[in-house]
Amino acid sequence: MNHETSFNPALGFSSAGLVVTVLAIVALWRVFAKAGYPGWAAIIPIYNVYVWLKVAGRSGWWLLLLLVPLVNLVVVIVVSLDIARAFGKSGVFGFFGLFVFSIIGYLILGFGRARYTAPGPR
Fold first, then answer.
1. What is the DSSP letter of 39?
2. What confidence score (pLDDT) does residue 122 get?
3. How far apart are CA 99 and CA 104, in angstroms?
4. Closest Cα partner for 104 from 21, 22, 41, 27?
5. 95 — pLDDT class (breaks 50, 70, 90)
6. Among 20, 17, 24, 19, residue whose Cα is nearest residue 109
7. Distance between CA atoms of residues 27 and 106, nearest Å
8. 29 CB contacts (<8 Å, ≥6 apart)?
9. Where do the H-state alpha helices sit in 35-101?
10. The pLDDT of residue 16
């Protein structure tokens, strides 16, 4: 068997996963910074979800709702809509941009002209 020409699909998936993860971190970092929160929060598990909820103007207690199956889906949609509104975007952008195509939507918020209009850090 010629090992020089063998293809390892796991390596391709791992590389793609790494790219998606880095893009998600960069996007959230910029969105958090625009909203007045520390950008580095994007890389801290659980804390990043707490900050994400705060950017949306929601209580940190909503984090517990994310642990409930099916309820978590509704919470993510509601928070996506809230964040879109906080950045002056429509509900359509919130659903499709931040919920369905989240990385692209958060990159648009982070690097675009959108301004955060909701209350800052409390």
1. G
2. 46
3. 10
4. 27
5. very high
6. 24
7. 5
8. 39, 40, 42, 43, 110
9. 47-55, 62-65, 71-86, 91-92
10. 80
